[in-house]
Design brief:
Number of strands: 0
Structural class: mainly alpha
Shape: elongated
Number of helices: 1
Order of helices and strands: H
Number of domains: 1
Helix content: 25-40%
Distance between the termini: 26 Å
């Protein structure tokens, strides 16, 4: 799942409000890009 910082904050607020929820997660920065011709 790729989300913005704001979306991530809202998601985790919602998850933290869930009773009895146990969840393992990893958050890492991601960068996307393209090199060369991208109009193919």
């Amino acid at each position: 799942m790729i989300v913005s910082e704001d979306e991530s904050a809202r998601l985790f607020e919602r998850l933290n409000a869930e009773p009895n929820l146990e969840l393992f997660y990893a958050k890492t920065p991601v960068e996307f890009g393209a090199i060369g011709r991208v109009d193919q």
